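input
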Amino acid sequence: MPAIEFNDTEFSQGDLWVFGYGSLMWRPGFEFIERVPARLIGEHRALCVYSFVHRGTPEKPGLVLGLDRGGACRGIAFRVAEKYRAATIAYLREREQVTSVYREVMRSVWLENDARQRVSALVYVVDRGHVQYAGRLSLTEQLRHVLQGHGQSGVNRDYVLATVKAIEAEGFRDSQLHRLAAMLHTQHPPPLPAENSDR
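output
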């Protein structure tokens, strides 16, 4: 299935909710008026996307997070004012859809606030038919890719550790990511290539 992009008219009017489960938790990059811990049912957070741009290259892929089917995921729901909706969607498409590895979908998320309300949020879910879908990798395979990964947005190791830190700041744990983070703390990444080596 190809990546889906909504027409602007397909988004409900009013404020826009965006669900972040990886780097959006600690670097949203857009204006928001509310930030609420939230839970999405039916998909789980997984290092299941080979990164060819942001945290790796096609020759030495890194690994980044995607939402894969089954289970549940705790993350952050950001409420974006209606006047910033179009700009936020455009920004997220430029950031998340560089290689169209995600499907842009609307999903119900449950806000973990006093009201415990359900809202419809914009979410980026992995496209299982995409060449960058890594599937379920062993921790050893994940470690190897994360240690080698370095792309336009920086070192893959930093991405994983920053996400774990953001998860801990919200008061919960992600057992798979925490195990990988513990392994990363005992490993040293390989030296980066010289600046002009791939030009």
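quick obs: DSSP finds five helices and seven strands in the chain.
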